Batch of 2 targets.
Target 1
Amino acid sequence: MDPARTLLDRELLVSGIVHDLRGPLTAIQGFTELYDRNPRPVLAPAIDRMTSLVSTLAETSVSPPDFVQFGGVRVRVRGPIGVLELAIASLPHRALRLELAPEHLAVEISGVPIAEIAAGWSLAQVRLWLAEGGPGLAGARLRIAARIVGALRYSFPLTPGESEGVVHIHLARG
């Protein structure tokens, strides 16, 4: 299997796991703060350990910062730029535009179907995507790829009534 796709899918799965852990963890934290006037000594450190584990899992940085070429521009990344290139190539879209700014390279991907927005996902959704594909998978992979490379910004603003949108990604210039 392709290493870039494997990394994207692994990080997508980990993101689904983190999503599924955060809800119960937040509920436990709230319960202990509101209802347990005399917390058991072992409970607070256990919650801290779980919170730390979830935070560690959520970190997608796979390597120290490096400088690479993307679209002919030198950018600073924290992961292999190939994952972003693969995710962009796999995403249905009409046009890709790069714009240089003093501190960053703005990547604008236009004509992206709204179905690819993938604002959030659970482990069940990720498993379904990986088994069957479908709308949202390419958008989720792009969002994960932006995290892996350490994008300064990722946005996919919605315009009511539109069937397509524009993804904005900012990469730090090097």
Target 2
Amino acid sequence: MLSLKKFLFKGGSPSHLPEDVRASLAAWRESPAPPPEELHFHTRYVVVDIVSSGPQPESDRLLGIAATSLLRGTIQPDDTFYVDFSTLDGENATVDRQLMAFLLFAAKGPLVTYHVPYVGGFLQRAFRERLGVDFQPQWIDMAWLLPSMFEEKSHTVMPLDYWIEVFGLNGGGARRDAMVNTLLLARIFQMMLVRASGKQVDTAQQLIDESRASSFLRRTH
């Protein structure tokens, strides 16, 4: 069996991808992104979490991806994605197909997570090295947005467990799998959408812009 690091980050050419993956990738590249000016109620948000062997995207290993969607402000239990790379036994084609499946699931819509540099860093490396994709979606970073939207609860970035406790959710302790984390994030994001609308942050683009502004301001002040 190939080591997980070796098969997940092969550094090969996308021309060596299976034919079905290349066809799906071409179709994905040509597909339009949903309009970011849509109101929250009409926007499909995809909440993402990952599992990794450590905190460094450029040196540690991506072990799994979990995602779920929200549409009309509601978590869609039948619209989820999960892959555990450690169970794929070094099958390069299977890894490529799973990564391609995530791209199709995300569908170029806005992605929501907690700490974009961590989650986005691992995903960007995987898609670059495996599929030759410069993966730069429209990210919404809840780590920075939550203090901006709920100033009465915190003025600074806090661990996710802090927000889970603040909102009275059952986190099941610090050790959770990626899908449980994703569902918890999705529930917190639902509450944040209500607060965002109350602040007249009404569209996906406004939320993306607010996320970027919150990150910049809090990193530089």
